[in-house]
Design a protein that fits this description.
Layout (H helix, E strand, L loop, with lengths): L8 H8 L27 E10 L10 H18 L3 E11 L5 H18 L2 E9 L4 E10 L15 E5 L4 H9 L7 H12 L7 H4 L5 E4 L4 H8 L6 E4 L8 H8 L5 H5 L7 E5 L4 H11 L3 E8 L3 E4 L2 E2 L12
Parallel strand pairs: 2-3, 7-10
Antiparallel strand pairs: 1-4, 2-4, 5-8, 5-9, 6-8, 7-9, 10-11
Helix pairs in contact: 2-3, 4-5
């Protein structure tokens, strides 16, 4: 009888994770109890952390590649929103017994794709056994101190911009929860947007000419409210300028969904950022050069609250928070 190819911590490290350290000196090739971070001249290290939990942040049936892409995207999006370039990351895996070699191989392959695309490496981490799949990661990035983007301090009159398209992931989640029924082509498109979010890495390109930024993880309105968290300023949004994909526009036209549903939903992982109007040409030039879609959707105004076409939104869904 053929022996079962048992999964062990050492096998996971040396068969799969070892290829992710890119032989960087900081990692000691995973032979030490810890690693170190290199300081770069005139740069600050920014750090972020995200944890995703089975049945809360993703479904049990989601493919390994999707789980990998989500933990990477969530963190890269945070790094980008602060104007930084990614440098390295740690990875902690709490694995249930159901995990197979095939699952780990697919998971690692997807992470390696993003590492090669955005030039960062695995510093180290931890592996443990769990009753459910839990993945946690710290990401480190570099940015000049004076260029760090924050969630605050936009100025009255600043333009409000968003990257990419909004709302597609929300439809994918609704499909997963069987809250909406669409045809096969639509289902495939929106489900893919939910399962495989992509980070918008424009942050380090715009940090010198922007005044604030945040990634859209908890909904457009909710995350915008974090930027204007002051009694002195607010935001006026032009509804006709909000960017939606052609697929989502078709759902609006057929009254299958309303705009408030998607603008209150999260998981877009695009950026909201503000910038002086004098920088419009510079921003458009950057977007064209690096093939990023950016859209001017509003402006910062001198009265508190969020307004859409000059009408104040009295109520909108609060940003998502975990309940305990």
């Amino acid at each position: 009888m053929r022996k079962k190819n048992k999964i062990t911590e050492q096998k996971i490290i040396y068969r799969y994770l070892n290829k992710l350290n890119f032989n960087k000196s900081e990692t000691f090739n995973f032979n030490n109890d810890a690693a170190f971070l290199k300081k770069r001249k005139n740069k600050e290290i920014v750090v972020t952390n995200d944890t995703i939990v089975e049945s809360i942040d993703f479904f049990k049936s989601d493919p390994a590649e999707s789980v990998a892409q989500k933990i990477i995207t969530y963190n890269l999006s945070d790094i980008s929103s602060m104007g930084a370039d990614p440098y390295a990351f740690t990875l902690s895996l709490s694995l249930p017994k159901k995990i197979t070699h095939e699952w780990i191989s697919k998971f690692v392959k997807k992470i390696l794709y993003f590492q090669n695309k955005y030039n960062f490496f695995l510093l180290g981490g931890d592996i443990s056994q769990s009753n459910q799949l839990i993945i946690s990661s710290n990401f480190f990035g570099y940015v000049a101190k004076q260029n760090i983007l924050k969630r605050e301090f936009p100025n009255k009159g600043d333009d409000i911009w968003v990257t990419g398209y909004l709302g597609d992931s929300a439809i994918g989640l609704a499909l997963s929860k069987k809250q909406i029924v669409l045809n096969d082509v639509q289902t495939k498109y929106f489900t893919n947007k939910f399962l495989f979010p992509r980070p918008c890495m424009i942050g380090s390109l715009i940090c010198k000419i922007s005044t604030s930024a945040i990634d859209i993880s908890d909904g457009f309105y909710g995350d915008l409210s974090k930027i204007i968290n002051s009694k002195l300023i607010g935001a006026n949004i032009y509804s006709s300028k909000i960017p939606y994909s052609s697929n989502l526009k078709k759902l609006f036209a057929k009254n299958k969904i309303v705009t408030s549903d998607v603008l209150n939903a999260g998981d877009d992982y695009e950026l909201i950022f503000t910038a002086p109007k004098d920088n419009r040409a510079k921003l458009k030039k950057i977007a064209t050069k690096y093939n990023y879609r950016i859209t001017k959707v509003g402006r910062i105004i001198g009265k508190n609250g969020i307004y859409v076409d000059d009408q104040k939104i009295m109520k909108f869904k609060n940003p998502y928070q975990h309940s305990f």
